[in-house]
Specification:
The protein is about 45% helix and about 15% strand. It has 17 helices and 14 strands. The strands form three sheets. Strands 4-10-9-8-7-5-6 form a seven-stranded mixed beta sheet, sandwiched between helices. Strands 1-2-3-12 form a four-stranded mixed beta sheet. Strands 11-14-13 form a three-stranded antiparallel beta sheet. Helix 4 (about 90-100) packs parallel to helix 12. The longest helix has 20 residues, at about 300-320. The protein is globular and about 60 Å long. Bound molecules: pyridoxal-5'-phosphate. The site of pyridoxal-5'-phosphate has 13 residues, from helix 5. Belongs to the class-II pyridoxal-phosphate-dependent aminotransferase family. Pathway: Lipid metabolism.
């Protein structure tokens, strides 16, 4: 028998194994200064394209003021205890009511964190007789939620409606045997590539199959739809979403999340969401902070307009220069390039050190081998000058990638990695 920690020390995991080469730079980088379009990395100013502060609320003076006032009045703790026991307040209820109205649902329920919250929602919505059908490219929180499920689950190919139909046929046969129901899960916006979930087509399948739909709209909330109610509103099918989920971690620039749907479903979840029932209530700083942010989402449409002006300028600029930005239908802006992991590392270093551009890099196994994905998140705080500088930098790094500069630069890295 071996010691439990032997394996952990030998094998640090798919990401942990890169720690000695990557930590502090490619992973766990320290961005300093106020959250905005320009921050500091290793003491130098960079244009930041990797922060999900879509509407620029993180550092908005009104938001900072509301957060500070709430902190001064309540400290970080109030209210103490779980919502069910002693952590419930009028303002938690008010926020829920306002969120429900904002996304056009009867009711909403607050969650401390999106990740645990959606896991619990999946866990609470199904029993072992029910079947889950979900997009294969789902966020880790959905995958972990599905892992809690004791019954059958099927994945469908990413955004592939034929594959979804096939799996719904299988799920329907199975549900007829078990006597259970079917839960379909999609994201409103897939956060890596920026494609919207094909909610309109999924909802249309309700004519043919009997299922309920849960949508994780982390990136759609506040950014899509005429009022910012998200991908369902954008595609005209908000009513077809049975359980709507969004986090405060992106457009709302905070912590917390919520679920919304019909009153009887939300009432059920309120009494069955284990990660909320047995966890301390969301502190008042975040509740009051979310009320303020939501008010700004409602009353300051110019923030979303500014965001989209920037998104369009960046995405059109990239397309005009012949970059492959895939099939994004949201603010998430991916740029696909061909190259190895060491080349990607050399390229990102060049972008950061010589052009002052800070963006996230995604490589295999998240995307196929040989592809490099540079992922950019435009926000309302970016300027046309930031966009122009970024487009020029991207043109420069593409020619270096193509003329082999990064291959040469990365040879030392590749050798160190044993590639
Ligand atoms: C698609 C998606 N779902 C859920 C979450 C988790 O939300 P939270 O950060 O509130 O835990 C995230 C990340 O924030 C996300 O991108």
């Amino acid at each position: 028998m071996r010691d439990l920690f032997d394996r952990i020390i030998e094998n640090k995991g798919p990401l942990g194994k890169w720690a000695s080469q990557a930590e502090g730079y490619f992973v766990f980088p320290k961005l300093e200064g106020q959250i905005s379009n320009r921050m500091k990395f290793n003491g130098k100013e960079v244009i930041t394209w990797s922060i999900n502060d879509y509407l620029g609320l993180a550092n908005h003076p009104e938001v900072i003021k509301a957060d500070a006032e709430a902190a001064a009045e309540h400290g970080a703790a109030y209210p103490m205890g779980a919502r069910m026991m002693s952590g419930h307040t009028d303002l938690h209820e008010q926020l829920q009511n306002e969120l429900a109205a904002f996304v056009n649902k009867q009711s909403a329920y607050l969650l401390n964190f999106g990740y645990q919250g959606i896991m619990s929602a999946i866990d609470a919505l199904v029993t072992k007789d029910d079947i889950i059908v979900y997009d294969v490219d789902s966020h880790a929180c959905i995958i972990d939620g599905v892992r809690l499920h004791m019954g059958k689950r099927f994945t469908y190919q990413h955004n592939d409606m034929e594959s979804l139909e096939k799996n719904l046929e299988r799920a329907t046969k199975m549900a007829e045997q078990t006597g259970g129901g079917i839960l379909v899960i999609s994201e409103g916006v897939f956060g890596m590539r920026g494609e919207q979930g094909r909610l309109k087509e999924i909802v249309a399948l309700k004519e043919k199959f009997k299922f309920r739909l849960l949508v994780d709209d982390a990136h759609g909330f506040g950014t899509l739809g005429a009022t910012g109610a998200g991908a369902g509103e954008e595609q005209g099918v908000q009513d077809g979403i049975d359980v709507y989920f969004a986090t405060f971690a992106k457009s709302m620039a905070s912590i917390g999340a919520f679920l919304a749907g019909d009153k009887e479903v939300i009432d059920y979840l309120k009494y069955n969401l284990r990660s909320q029932m047995f966890a301390k209530s969301l502190p008042m700083i975040f509740v009051k902070g979310a009320l303020k942010r939501l008010d700004m989402l409602r009353t300051m449409p110019e923030l979303k307009q500014k965001l989209w002006d920037n998104v369009n300028a960046l995405q059109n600029g990239l397309k005009e220069r012949g970059f492959d930005i895939g099939n994004t239908q949201s603010c998430v802006t991916p740029v696909y390039l061909n190259g190895s992991i060491p080349e990607a590392m050399a390229l990102v270093k060049d972008l950061r050190e010589n052009y002052g551009i800070f963006c996230s890099i995604v490589v295999y196994p998240v995307i196929p081998k040989g592809l490099i994905l540079l992922r950019m998140i435009p926000t309302a705080t970016h300027t046309m000058e930031d966009i122009q500088a970024t487009l020029d930098a991207f043109s420069a790094i593409r020619s270096r990638l193509e003329n082999g500069t990064y291959k040469r630069l990365s040879q030392a890295v590749a050798m160190a990695m044993g590639e």
